[in-house]
Amino acid sequence: MNHPPPPVRAGLHRPGDGQGELARWRLISLEKQLPQPRLLTGVGTPALVAALLLTLLAVFAFAYLGRDSEAGVPRAVTDSQRDFVRAVARGLDSSVARSREELARTAGAYDARPAGAATQLAALTRDQPKWRGVGVLDAGGKSTVAAVGQPVALPPGTAAGRIALPVVEGNDPRLLLVEPLSDGRLLVAELNLHIRTLRLDPKAKQAVLIAVPGGGRSLVQGAPVPADPALDGLITGAVGATSGGSTATRTGAPAAGPADRDPTAPIAPVTTADAVGKVGVVVVSLVYVPVTAAAVTREPLLAALVLLLGAGAVLLILQFGLVRPMRLLLVHAKAVASGNPTQGPPRTANAQVNRIASAFGTLAAQQRTTPAGRGPDDPTGGVPAGLAVVTAVVAVLLAAGGILATLAPHEDDLPAQVVRDSENQVAAVAGAVDDTLDGGYTKLALVGADNRTAGTGQLRRALDRLLDDNRRFRSGYLVSANGGVVTSVGRTPLRPGGPLPGEGGVVLHDVQGRLPIVYAYTQLADGRSLVAEFDVRYLTRLLERVDGRLRVVDVDQRDILDSAGYLAFEQVSSRQVRTAAAEALSGKPYARVAEVDGDHELLITAPVALEGSAAHLEWTVVAERPVTDYALPGNEMRQGALLVAVVAAGIGLLLFSWYYFFQLRPLRNLAREAATLAGGDSSRVISPRWHDDIGAVAVCLEVCRQAAVHGEQRLGGAARLRGTEGMPTAIMTKVPPRRKAGSRGVRSSRRGD
């Protein structure tokens, strides 16, 4: 039984209009029973959230994309200088380490035979101009026992022990190395700190120096450093900052360029320093770099405007395509569900809303509450709600695509200093490969020279020590005169049996198989030979010192080593790479930006060795790196635009997912149920899926269904969630408890039976 209507409020009562008063009361009661949208559940909430996120993204894009518009040295130049100096310092540190090993080996020979000191010192310095002078001093370091080259002496107060003292005087930096001997004497050597010949840019007035923290500095290569207190402070600050073990960069104040350059383009001095291991010296590079002028670019503002337009498009499309039609439908649904007169169902731009409104019009006509209404067969028309959502998402994606298309310029060129620094780094890698191969052969030849007539056991121990001290080798073995392996250490040899070609050297065994077999060998006095195979992974790691793709190709343009995934001995397909590799073998340096496979890349080639034991291999190091990888203003703008576009696309995906799962699917299901109800099938209960506007329309549709089944009394404020009068009350019989004891007694009696 329905409850009587409550007292009406003032303004709702019109004399002689009892039916209208009842309808208004039903509307008030119905509204109290309808689900109310909460936070993030309204039909317009996804559009508002997406528009807000796009607005915030516009603010972020304006700030993020405009961060590099200030004047200054391009970051690509400072990055390349840092890598260049680090490579030079690493190479010098490796050279010092090898020299200390040679000096330690000489000290060991002296300890074994002190009488041959002069011969041992002469053997150390023979054909090695890096040694300025070597001598054996007494325990106090005051008198010389034996010496070769220029005289050496210990500074006063030097503690006896294995030490390294930097000596920086003029343009001749040196390192004083001390090795204690077993008889208390000291082996002292002066090592010239030579750096391999570098290709420096004369226009940039680049200078490479060796400095000592808190001490002097020496010019090694490049242009003389002018006497300038500001410049001295810049270099001193960079050298002092390397005490923490990291590369330091300091940039000076911009000034007018030289006469041979554009005077309107200022230049700034950039000093970069890196320590050489722990020997107490620092490599410093000084270069003058053109300063990028501050530019007020329109790209950040354009990106922000595009995103704001996208946010406005989302609001407009969804407002007229979904939000406003749903609100009109809810007003109409409330009127029909409360028995209020209507002027017919509203016609909107949404097809599903029109179908539901048409169903309400049919139900209103059945209730005889409207004089004229659209029938169930009236055309509804409109655009599907999903199309409106997709259109809004497409607007967001178009904004993201517009940012990528207009704010992502390609850099087609590089600063000259970046090209020179990269060229020096690739040359250093080629030198490292050559040092590994040639140095490996030298070490193996020394082992063979010391054990020319030794037995198998002694040679095996010598090879074992060689592999322990050199990670470049994967295996070492003794080969008989006919090529068979007598004994081996390390991993299983890859080289097939057979005679060795000649008396010694570095050999690439074959150009077939899944990996190259590179080995060094030396012949002994009795026809046997020592062989040491190089570890391909060790050689490949040398290529990884430089960013980008580095590979070693032979004279026939086949891939021998590669820092990226590759097939051994695969032919190089790029015509530009083949031409560059051929020029490098002819002695012509090649370092330029070229188009490789459709991309602008910095292509650099350098020969591995033009002389020495590895020269006959005719290998070339080829380095490729896309121009887009460098930290140039255009590249950084492109990366920032890509980030903004990806975030915008993510917002569009969020918008579509939110509407699809929480709005479109329930709306489509409700339209189907409304059409079924309007067609005369009132057996299915219509339940709200979500507590939002669509759920409220579903409740109104259920009210109309109940009115169609039970009559007009079910409209409006009828009680629906609690019991009604007339429900019978039944008294249920109490279930007696189980007789557990009796049950056990029955079971026990059965067991007794």
From TrEMBL:
Reaction equations catalysed: ATP + protein L-histidine = ADP + protein N-phospho-L-histidine
Ranges where the record places region Disordered: 242-262, 733-753
Keyword Chaperone: no
Entry keyword Lyase: no
UniProt organism field: Micromonospora antibiotica
InterPro entries: 2C_sensor_his_kinase
Protein name according to UniProt: histidine kinase
Stretches with biased composition (Low complexity): 242-258
Regions crossing the membrane: 47-65, 301-322, 385-407, 641-662
EC number: 2.7.13.3
Keywords for the protein's UniProt record, in alphabetical order: Kinase, Membrane, Phosphoprotein, Transferase, Transmembrane, Transmembrane helix, Two-component regulatory system
